[in-house]
Amino acid sequence: MLTYISLFSGAGGFSIGFNALGYRCLFANDIDEDAEKTHNLNFPKTPFIRRNIAKLLPSEILKATKGVKPDVIIGGPPCQGFSMMGDKHGSDPRNQLFKHYVNLVRDLNPKCFVFENVKGLAQLHKGEFLKNLTKDFSACGYDIYFKILNSSDYGVPQNRERVILFGTRLNKKFNFPTKSKSNFKKH
Which of 126, 147, 163, 168 is a good FRET partner for 176, with 20 to 30 A between their CA atoms? Predict the structure, then answer.
């Protein structure tokens, strides 16, 4: 069984998809107390540490997983600084949380990772922010695949465009999923 850890877990929406595919969550993290309560209710067997990712150590994660390193790391750092709906402040301190995600990917060295964020991430500083993020992940030894996906193309009744970065060390070409035939009309 393949394993994963979830960063910026929230209530566990990302985990639902991975669990449905047969993955086992080794560990979850978020800073929000309500997210922790909901996550613990929905995933009572998954170790959860409520803490800012900037202060989360790889050794703490490995202690929680009993030394097992994940096959995959998943997560979507807070997006308020990138959101098309927000003020798009490049100086928003939450924009720096991605560096800690990169550091944990580097230190835990999973086979793959999935990084999700709002479409505005690709446009911040004329695309330089995403370009630098991709370079940071590449420097950790990953082949990077990037695409903007709309959830309505995959059976979700909502237009929700997201940047998806997939990183792999498996030396195999990655293909994003094909659009669902049961997509919803976009208005």
Answer: 126
